[in-house]
Amino acid sequence: MKKMLWLTPLVAAVMLFNTVCAFAEGSEGELPGPVPGEGDVVDGGDHTHESDGIWHHNDENHWMLCIDETCGEQINLGPHTYGAATPDANGLTHTMKCTVCGYAKAESHTGGSATCTQYAVCDVCGTAYGELAEHQYVQMSDGTGHWMECSVCHERTETQPHTGGTATCKDQAVCEVCGTAYGELGKHDYSVTNHDEKEHWQECSVCGEKKGVEAHSGGKATCSEQAVCAACGAKYGAVAAHDFSVMKSDGAYHWKECSMCGTQAEKTAHSGGTATCIERAACSVCGAKYGERAAHKGGTATCNKKATCEVCGSSYGDYAPHTPGDVWRSDETTHWHNCTVCNARIDSTLHTEDGGRVVTKPTENAVGLRAYSCAVCGRQLRTEYIPATGVVSSSSSASSASSEPASSSVSSSSSAPASSSTSSQTSSSASSQTAQIQTPTEPKGRLNNVILIMVGCLLAAAGVCGIIMAVNLRKKP
User: Fold this and answer.
1) Is the residue at 70 inside a domain?
2) Do residue 316 and residue 437 come from a single domain?
């Protein structure tokens, strides 16, 4: 059984082929019935179709039927074929009959266009039908009026004269209803005053026609503006030349300036004139003051008075330096010169002690004396004893050692003058003071020691007094 299954597709293909062939050979395109086969039964069997001779139809097709009522086959099936249409009495339709089966079909008239004078004509049967159309009115006009006119039959209606609009000298008035120009031209409107570089005139505001043409006149030109016509106000002609009649100046320059526009010319720096301490120089061209005033001049300044200008009498400049005198003045610590003009103390400096000089040479039995002075002004500053050069007994040597130190200083203030500011301290005065110093005698026992102590005290007291006096003198103006 399984070996026979492969035959099933082959049998089906053979049956399909026989069916197609039967359809191709069948009458009037009908499909044949099923091919008789083992176990199949076809009712009625095969027969030849025969029409019943009666046309059957619907709105689109017609056909005949097979006389075999059980068959029901449609024979000669096809669409209607209509002949010429015939208008109906109702004026609204026409009828068409099929030339094969006689089927009649009524249709409304169609197509065509009606006018106000002719009815529409049916495109199928050619019969006029329907109603006349309305008039096709269009706006028409001539030079005096306007109206509505039918474009088909030319019937007129609503005839009226033109109205509205305004005529000018260039164009007629335009009717506000139909837009047609009509009537006479208007008058010129000479409301515009116009001009060119040479003339002026009245001009029509519409068409530009001129009248009253005249040359410009009046007005006065300047260096920056043309003359203005007295009639129309237009500028005309050439500008005038500059009028450099005005002289102007500032602190450094002078120039000529146009009296009309202010343009400058010939700008030059001031020159000439002589400046003083009172007035600046006056320009020799324009007279303007310029530059700086001159400095004061003349007069002689001193240390306590400025110079006096010989021009204006004013004091000016700086004080002159002090004029030192030739004589040194001094006190215990400093020396100076007095100004020969104002007597002020100037160039005051501290004393510079020199190396000392021997006033009294020591002897075998007596001490010597050395004086120290300022190396600059020569004032004696101090003195000191020089030990004696001789040899004495042991008793006298001990007393000498106690009373004569190796280097004892003696203040020179005891020999200073009472007023050091009023007397010159020269080397000659130092020599005279030295001469006044008594050379000490050889000490003799206690008496000599007492004498030495007293002399030292006196010298110290004299030095203190001298310092006090010098301070008081310096405090005085």
Assistant:
1) no
2) no
